[in-house]
Amino acid sequence: MYEFDCGDGSGWMYSVNGWFPNYGCSSYELKQGDVIKWLYTCDLGADVGSEMH
To answer: What confidence tier does 53 reach under pLDDT thresholds 50, 70, 90?
Structure first.
């Protein structure tokens, strides 16, 4: 699946320990024990638990 496959507000997001950083994953510095999830959103993150929509 690609960005915009499911409409204007769709694409890939990531969370670390349940938090959705507001910057790209290449800028996030992981720590031992961090849990990373990649999620596909169809509604600017509202459908996957992000408050940044």
So the answer is: low
Kindly report the number of other CB atoms within 10 A of residue 41's CB atom: 19
Looking from the CA of 41 toward its CB, the CA atoms found within 13 Å total: 22
**Would you call 17 helix, strand, or coil by DSSP?**
coil
The residues, any chain, with a CB within 8 Å of residue 26's CB and separated by 6 or more, are: none
**Exposed/middle/buried for residue 30 (C-beta within 10 Å: 0-12, 13-18, 19+):** exposed
Rg of the chain in Å (alpha carbons): 11
Please tell me the pTM assigned to this model: 0.85
Average pLDDT over residues 20-49: 96
Place of tokens 């204007």: 8
